[in-house]
Each structure stands twice: as C-alpha cells, then as structure tokens.
From TrEMBL:
Enzyme Commission number(s) from the entry: 1.10.3.2
Major subcellular location class: secreted
Protein localization: Secreted, Extracellular space, Apoplast
UniProtKB keywords: Apoplast, Copper, Glycoprotein, Lignin degradation, Metal-binding, Oxidoreductase, Repeat, Secreted
Annotated TM spans: none
GO cellular component: apoplast
Protein name, as recorded: laccase
Keyword Glycoprotein attributed: yes
InterPro entries: Cu-oxidase_2nd (IPR001117), Cu-oxidase_C (IPR011706), Cu-oxidase_fam (IPR045087), Cu_oxidase_CS (IPR033138), Cu_oxidase_Cu_BS (IPR002355), Cupredoxin (IPR008972), CuRO_2_LCC (IPR034285), CuRO_3_LCC (IPR034289)
Length: 457
C-alpha cells in the first residue's frame, strides 16, 4: 500500500491490523504472476512471446537498504530481498545470497523493485538478455536490453530466458549516481542457478563460479537515458491532446540559513542546512491533521491552495544560478485541479547545489511520459518532439540530471494526491507538493468517506 503520512492515507503503523479500503482508493496496482502475458509484436519483428501461468515462474528481485554487519561495524547496504548482498562484501559463515533456480530453456518473469529509497540503480544478469514487458505495473512494448536503470519507487518487469550454458550467473544491481554527493557504491547480487548446473563448490568446477554482468559506470547518464528512452506503451494510447492545466515545476535542492549553526540539522555549507523544493516551495507536512482529513472535514488553516503553477521567479534553471535564489520558502501549498482536467507538467531539474535525477512520484495516477531532454525546457521548440502516440505510462519518472521531463494525465481521481521526489532525503528536505483534485458529478466521481476502521494518527 502506497500511503504517505500526512496526506491521503494514513501509514500503517507496526503492529496495527490492516484496515479495509474501498478498492477504488487503492493506489498500488499489482500485476500478478497469474496474469497471462501475451505479446505478439510485428510479424516481421524479432520478438514473440506467448506465456501463461503454466509456463512462467514469477520472481521478485526487491532491492532494499538493510543494515549489514562487517568488520565490527554495521553499514546500511543495498540487498536483494533483504538477504546478504554478495561477494563485494566480506563473506562469513552462514551468509546466503538469494538464488533463483531456473530450468534450461525456461522463461521466468522477474519483477525488479527498487525499494532502496535513496539511489537509482543499474541492474543486469550476466550473459542474459532481458525483455522488458512492463514498468510500474503498466505494460510496455517489449524490447530486449542487457541493462535496466531503475529509480526508487519504480518497478520493472522483465522476461528472462535461460538460454545459456547451464551454470550459475550473477544478477547484480549497483548505483547510478547523478549528484555531486557521497553514495553507496556497493553491489548487491543474487544468483541465477540452472537446475542442471554442476554444484558451485565442485573442485574442478571453474565453470561453476558465477560470472558478473557488465554494468555501466556509476555516473553513466548516457546508458540510463538510452534505457528510459526506449520505453513505449504496447500500442496507441489516449493521451490528452488538449491541455487545461499547463504546469511547469522547477524541482531541485536548496540551502536554508540556520538560526542555530551548531544544530545537528545544520549540515550544509557555511551555516546552512539542506533543503529541497518545487517552484521554490519547500513542502512542510501538516502537524494538526492530515491533508485529506482537513479537506474532507473542511478544517481551515492546515493548508492553502496557492501552489504556484510556474516558478515565482524565472531564471536559467540549469545554468549558474545566483545564490540569491538558493533559499526556498517553507509552506504547505496544494494545487487545485478540476475533476477531469487535462494536465501537463514539465518537471525541470535545477542546478542549485547540484543537478540530479529526481525520481518524481505521483500518487493516485499513472501518467504518460511524453518527452524529456537536457538543459532548460523550451516551450516553443520542445513540444514538437513530444510522443503523443505511444508514450509509456508510469507513476514515477526521473528528471534527467540538468534536464526536464514532461508528463500528461487526466485528473479523474478525486482527492488529495502527493507528488514528491522518491529519494528519501529529498522528500524530508521538502521536495514535494500535493494536488487537490475536486469532486466531479455524483458519488462515483467524489471522494468516498473514510473507512470506519481508519487508524488514527
Ligand atoms: Cu530528489
């Protein structure tokens, strides 16, 4: 469940029973392995796949940050499914990495999930091609690749056929880092193990030592963009062609002058602390009530609805930004949308403090990703390059570092919906805003009452 504290849904606290949600308000979709996958690309195309439950095994490859103890110290390290990350850390007795058994010739459906919350990642499997079939639980036009880039909050479903010499092969993920800041440079692994492979510790078995996939360098933006730019919907989609709300959000970091420079929060340069903002508004979570409850109950004073549709001051977003523009304003501002409004948002990264790939996540919606580019978005020339035919649908999309990405959706889900950077530290620094989507006509287009067993904060 994709609840954000202080927003539409209450987070589930540890030890609390699940509560019932009307199905229409559940914002995380799950493609289940039981669903058939059937793609039939162009007759002359190289790809054909007809898979059904009977022949496809489904596995999850969940990348999470977990404490791993080594050399008397405990580090947070990226792991697969919470287990030992593998040979780039010192191995001790009892350490077990995740193993995915596979029969020769078999095809598995692998859902790669980035739950690491602080890092974009590259992922690949030694000697094996991956056929991408879905992202963020929306089908894509299948294509093959040796590496994927996945941001926090994203999922990528790939088909993998065991068509290599029976053996053990590493499946590995490690950072794609775009900011000028320290990051976890460890590699996390699992092994793909052919059932007919010789045992791993066979004495002569040189062939049983797993080999590593080749992954791009930590800052290889070209490889990241080469992957994301290949994503398409399986066929023509109904992306809004007319736009009612043309929004332009500058997203990025900032610095706030500390009143007490000795405070532990004051970790920025020259007596400042790190902040982040959208259109210069650094989002502050409400403390008196959740946004949704305040809205539903008509309680004033919790938020305002004057989030700016464009930056309050225009500047060269990816150039050398004047220090006078580095300090955002702290606020709890929402942007109001009429039910059914056709919305376009250009998310423009800034070079304040550092350019960066910000994985922007919108709750309550899938949106079409219609274009992206480097530098400042040009409203005169860039829209001509938009893909309004078969853009991919996602719920999380990264801004190219020092660039922009454009999305469209129809606001047909009433309520209050958070939009935020999925890098946890940036969210804490205020890289967020929320939409207030008004009710339409009748019960089906209106916010439903909260469930009777909604937990209290
Ligand atoms: Cu961010």
């Amino acid at each position: 469940m994709d609840g954000a504290s202080g927003c539409t849904k209450s987070p589930l606290w540890f030890g609390l029973n699940c509560f019932k949600l009307p199905s229409a308000t559940v914002d995380s979709y799950n493609l289940s392995a039981a669903q058939n996958i059937s793609f039939n690309e162009e007759k002359n195309g190289s790809f054909q796949a007809h898979l059904s439950e009977a022949e496809t095994h489904y596995h999850e490859f969940v990348i999470q940050a977990k404490p791993v103890k080594r050399l008397c110290r405990t580090h947070n390290s990226i792991t697969v499914n919470g287990l030992f990350p593998g040979p780039t850390l010192e191995v001790r007795d009892g350490d077990r990495t995740v193993r995915f058994p596979v029969g020769s010739g078999e095809t598995i459906l692998l859902r790669v999930i980035n739950s690491a919350l602080n890092q974009e990642l590259f992922f690949g499997v030694a000697n094996h091609r991956l056929t991408v079939v879905a992202v963020d639980a929306a089908y894509t036009k299948p294509f093959t690749t040796s590496v994927i880039m996945i941001a926090p909050g994203q999922t990528t479903d790939v088909l993998l056929t065991a068509d290599q010499t029976p053996g053990h092969y590493y499946m590995a993920a490690r950072a794609y880092n775009t900011a000028n800041a320290p990051f976890d440079n460890t590699t996390t692994t699992a092994t793909l193990e052919y059932k007919t492979a010789p045992p791993r510790n066979a004495k002569k078995g040189k062939q049983s030592t797993p080999i590593f996939p080749r992954l791009p360098g930590f800052n290889d933006t070209n490889s990241a963009i080469a992957f994301t730019s290949r994503l398409r919907s399986p066929s023509r989609v109904e992306v809004p062609l007319q736009i009612d709300e043309n929004l332009f959000f500058a997203v990025g970091l900032g610095l706030i002058n500390c009143t007490n420079p000795n405070s532990p929060r004051c970790q920025g340069p020259n007596g400042t602390r790190f902040a982040a903002s959208m259109n210069n508004m650094s989002f502050v979570l409400p403390t008196r009530n959740s946004l949704m409850q305040a809205y539903y109950q008509g309680q004033p004073g919790v938020f305002t609805t004057d989030f700016p549709p464009v930056p309050p001051v225009k500047f060269d977003y990816t150039g050398n930004v004047s220090r006078g523009l580095w300090q955002p304003v702290k606020a709890t501002k929402l942007y109001k949308l009429k039910f059914g409004a056709r919305v376009q948002i250009v998310l423009q990264d800034t070079s304040i403090v550092s350019v960066e790939d910000h994985p922007m996540h919108l709750h309550g919606y899938h949106f079409a990703v219609i274009g992206a580019g480097f530098g400042n978005f040009n409203p005169r020339t860039d829209p001509a390059k938009f893909n309004l035919i078969d853009p991919p649908y996602r719920n999380t999309i990264g801004t190219p570092p020092g660039g922009w990405v454009a999305i469209r959706f129809e606001a047909d889900n009433p309520g209050i919906w958070f939009m935020h950077c999925h890098l946890d530290s940036h969210l804490n620094w205020g890289l967020a805003m929320a939409f207030l989507v008004e009710n339409g006509v009748g019960e089906l287009q209106s916010v439903q009452p909260p469930p009777l067993d909604l937990p209290r904060c």
